[in-house]
Amino acid sequence: MERRNVLKAAAVVGLTAVAQVANADLIVPGRRRPERRPTPQPERIDSAPDAQNYIVLEFFFAQNKEKRDALAAKFDAELIPLRHEIGFDKIGIFTVHDELMKNERGYDAEKFDGVVFTVQQTSSPDLLLSYQDISVKTASKFNLSDDLDFVDEEIIALRCFPSVPKIEVPNTNEGRVLQLRTYNSPNYERNLAKQAMFEDAELQIFRNSGMDPVFFGRTVFGSMAPNVTYMLSFKDDEARRESWSKFVNSDEWKTLSKDPKYSRTATRIRNLFLTPTPNSEI
């Protein structure tokens, strides 16, 4: 072989060896090769349609039922298009279902009888970070007269479960009943266990029992944190009663509810039955 080709071949071998050494773990005689661990990656926030969306729950506290109903009518007529302009979609507007809540044990009528509930969905976390500015922008176009003033407001932001990444609308019939439930956990570890309980099995038992989810999410910020909050939709109250009866009497639920790894995942539960306004999209 000519001297020039010999030098060329040696250079290639040398560069390959350097690359192999650079990419290899340093091995010291008598010591084991250290375990290669993957570099932790930050959680990806994706705005694709099938990514986990965010839900904003807003509770507007009016002074009484009459003002609540007037505020709900104003929201029903004007709020939905204004929030669509900003970037929210699937907007729901509700009041408590007076008849069903009347018999609900432990219901705080003084607190919730005068509330207008709104549910809004977005795929953008930026809308959550600028929500106060959004409220001011909306208010500039949304003139409320003195008799429609609300006393207080409560905001809860949720991130949808991977298994239910965005709002579903199972039905829009006039007599539908919506159920909003919040499961407060004693700490964040138990809160994650409650989410796992739903995603591993409980959510499927819901569906098998005729209980259609609207959304399932875990609180990003807001009251009763940490919690899991979800909404179910039923075509009417009879369907609701039949579905819950089927659920609580199912063998799958009886087994799941006794699993010790899911103990203490819901130490406080808030249950609300809601009536949608005529233009509510949920």
In terms of topology, how is this protein built?
Blueprint: H1 3-23, E1 54-61, H2 65-86, E2 89-96, H3 98-102, H4 109-112, E3 115-122, H5 125-129, H6 131-141, E4 152-160, E5 177-184, H7 188-208, E6 212-221, E7 227-234, H8 237-248, H9 251-257, E8 268-276
Antiparallel strand pairs: 1-3, 1-4, 2-3, 2-8, 4-6, 5-7, 5-8, 6-7
Description:
With 282 residues, this protein is an alpha+beta fold. The protein has one domain: Alpha-Beta Plaits (2-Layer Sandwich). It is built from nine helices and eight strands. Strands 1-3-2-8-5-7-6-4 form an eight-stranded antiparallel beta barrel. A hairpin with a 5-residue loop joins strand 6 and strand 7. The longest helix has 22 residues. It is globular, with a radius of gyration of 27 Å. 28% of the residues are buried. The N terminus is likely disordered.
Give the overall shape. Answer: globular
Give the CA-CA distance, first to last residue: 80 Å
- What fraction of residues sit in β-strands? 15-25%
Helix/strand class? alpha+beta
CATH topology: Alpha-Beta Plaits
Unreliable spans: 1-49
**Total E-strand runs:** 8
**For the largest beta sheet, what order do the strands appear in spatially?**
1-3-2-8-5-7-6-4
